[in-house]
Structures are given as structure tokens and as C-alpha cells.
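Marked as duplicate of an earlier ticket. Keeping the data here for the record.
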Amino acid sequence: MKTASWFNAGSMAGRVGISLGVPRRGVIGGYRLFRQLAPTREMLQWPRQAYEGRFFAMLGEMSPRKVWDQLHEMTGGNEPVLMCFENPPFTEANWCHRRMVAQWFEATLGERVPELNYEGPDLRLYVSPRVGRDL
């Protein structure tokens, strides 16, 4: 499994949108949606600390193994690529929930989920270290 921006995943098989919406232009069809991993519309207006707390609480209500398996099943044997809108590089000001999902999978299942075609700094650095321990 990997993560990517809607705009960086191209036409590869296995693309799964985990955002509330999808881009109006510039995205090739053939993707699937898994809105269970999307934030609420209200959360999009929140500051990062509040967003992280609520988002990880939402994830904590799900079974990571079940979600992992569902994502693999829905992509029909292709590697899932979880997509939302933000582009790397990620910083304190530019962050995204797909990397929080990636950290959740790593913390709970031991499964590392890298960002597609990204060679920058370790993306786990941009999610609050407190959150990983709370999982």
C-alpha cells in the first residue's frame, strides 16, 4: 500500500480516494472511493491539533486489519494507493490525513505505507509523535 495526491497517482490501478470530494479536473477515472477514511466536512475547518485528535479517535473506532483487508479486496489484487488532495513536501503547515492513515497502519499493524514517488524526509515526522503512542 502507498499514499499519493490525487494529482500524482496518474492512471495506475489500485487508486482509492479517501477524501470527501474528488477533483473536478485532472484526474483519470478508474479509481475507487473509501469514504470511511475521510475526515468530516466540519473537521476541514479545524486547526491541526483538534483535527488530529478527532481523526485518530475516528480511526480508533475502526479495525485496522479489517480496513487494510477491505482496501486490498476493493483494488482487485492491485496495490492500494490512498489518495487525498495535498501534495508533498509535508510540513507543520502542509499536512494531510492520508499520512495519518499511513501512521495508523504502521503503529497498529506494523505495515509501512510510503508516499508514492516521494524521496523527501520521513513523512512520519509530520504527524504528532503523541498520536502514535495513543494508538
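See parent ticket for discussion. The two ends are 20 Å apart (CA to CA).
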